[in-house]
Each structure stands twice: as C-alpha cells, then as structure tokens.
Design goal:
Elements lengths: L4 H38 L8 E5 L6 H8 L12 H8 L5 E9 L3 E8 L4 E5 L2 E5 L5 E4 L10 E3 L5 H11 L4 E7 L2 E6 L4 E6 L3 H17 L6 E3 L8 E3 L4
Parallel strand pairs: 1-3, 4-7, 7-8, 10-11
Antiparallel strand pairs: 2-3, 4-5, 5-6, 8-9, 9-10, 11-12
C-alpha cells in the first residue's frame, strides 16, 4: 500500500511560502507607497517654512537665536528637527528655557525665556552678570540691569553670597565683599559700610537694625557699622548728622 501524505505536506508548505511571499510584497508595496506619500506631503510648497517668529526678551538678540536654531525659510516644516534646534539655542548664554512649535501650514514659533540676573561681579576688569546659582551669564549690557549688587568674592562663593543677599532682601545693597566669615555690605541709599559675621547672621543683622533705628531717632548717620565683634556689640564709626 502506498502513502501519499508527505506529498500533501510539501504541497501545503509550498502554498504557505507563496502566500507569505505575496503578503511580504504587499506590505513592502504599502510601505514604499507610504514613504512616497510622506515625501510628497513634506515637499509640498504649502508646507514649507515661510515665517520664523522669535519671541524673546529685549536683551536677547533675535537674530542670534534664529542663527543658532539652524532653521531657514524654504525648508519643509516637517523636515526640520525641533529637538536639535532646541539644543543649539540652549547654547546661548542668556537662554534658560526654549520652546519651539510648528504653526501649520508654514510658520515656526520660537519662544525663549531668559536667565534671571541676581547680581554682578568683576572678572579681569570687566563686569559680568550672575544668575541665581552664582554662575556667570554674560558681560554687562549698557542700560540693562546695571543697578544690581556687585559681588566681590571667590567664584566658588558666588552662590553663597547670592543666597545671603536673597535672605537679607535689602534692595539698597550696592556692593558686597566676602572674606572668610566676614561679609562687608555697602548700602547705596545711606552710604553706609556694614560688617556682619555670616556664622551669626541673624543676630548681627538684628543688632545693626537696632543701632540704625536708634541713630535715625537722633537724626544721626554713621559711615561704618561693625557687628563682627564678640558679645553682640556694634561699633559705630563716622557719626554725622
């Protein structure tokens, strides 16, 4: 007796291979068709960039932001990488945060947020801005944030001094020096030099405030007030009416 079952299996296997091959051709054709459709859409004149709007504070030059973005008119709005443009823009010294969005059909909008200036400092006879972390931002821009307190300290102590300025919250501080534990403060409104110990800052400031109130009540001012001595004493020098 002859058995023909093996031949049937081969026949079924061959049909499966043919079916899979046809399916693969269909999938490949659909993939290529989608690729062609996407390329056709991307290259439509209606979807090419015709305007790039940059929204930024006045001290940040829009031309610089546009140049850093690498975006240009005439590019397909879907052909450009917004994430790459963001990375390049973040290299600008003033940029804290940037967002970019497509506004169909042909506009790209770039919005830039600036770092916050907390103080100034001198570096090689030049004035620079410092941010809230005590990091150098950029050189002084004439007419912009020029009335900030000037910090004279080691670069690694900038952040500490800025934290002290935030704690004291005195808008009249024009300049500060940090030397070890001694913080020297210059007040612009009353032209007073104040010395406090940062290790006992609270008590030093309270003592200074009390002495200043007493002087005002007597119609007097001092050129120097030193609260760094032991025993919570405040030494007053240069009394004047």
């Amino acid at each position: 007796m002859k058995l023909y079952q093996p031949k049937k299996k081969k026949k079924k296997l061959g049909r499966k291979i043919v079916a899979l091959a046809i399916l693969a051709l269909i999938v490949f054709g659909l993939f290529k068709g989608c690729q062609y459709a996407v390329r056709s859409i991307e290259n439509l004149d209606a979807l090419k960039i015709t305007a790039i709007n940059v929204i930024a504070p006045s001290h940040i030059q829009k031309a610089q932001i546009l140049s850093l973005s690498g975006l240009n008119k005439g590019q397909g709005i879907y052909n450009v990488s917004l994430s790459d443009a963001k990375k390049r823009i973040k290299g600008h010294p003033w940029v804290r945060k940037v967002s970019i969005r497509r506004s169909l059909p042909s506009t790209v909008e770039i919005t830039v947020q600036s770092k916050e200036v907390k103080a100034l400092t001198r570096v090689n006879d030049m004035i620079y801005y410092l941010d809230n972390e005590g990091k150098v931002i950029d050189k002084l821009i004439p007419g912009f944030k020029t009335n900030m307190p000037v910090i004279n300290a080691k670069p690694e102590e900038y952040a500490k001094v800025i934290a002290l300025l935030d704690y004291m919250k005195n808008p009249d501080i024009s300049e500060v020096f940090l030397d070890g534990d001694i913080l020297t403060i210059y007040l612009s409104d009353e032209n007073i030099k104040i010395l406090v110990s940062i290790s006992k800052l609270d008590q030093s400031l309270k003592n200074i405030a009390k002495v200043m109130a007493d002087l005002r009540s007597n119609g007097e001012k001092a050129s120097t007030m030193d609260a760094t001595l032991p025993g919570n004493k405040v030494v007053v020098r240069g009394l004047r009416k």
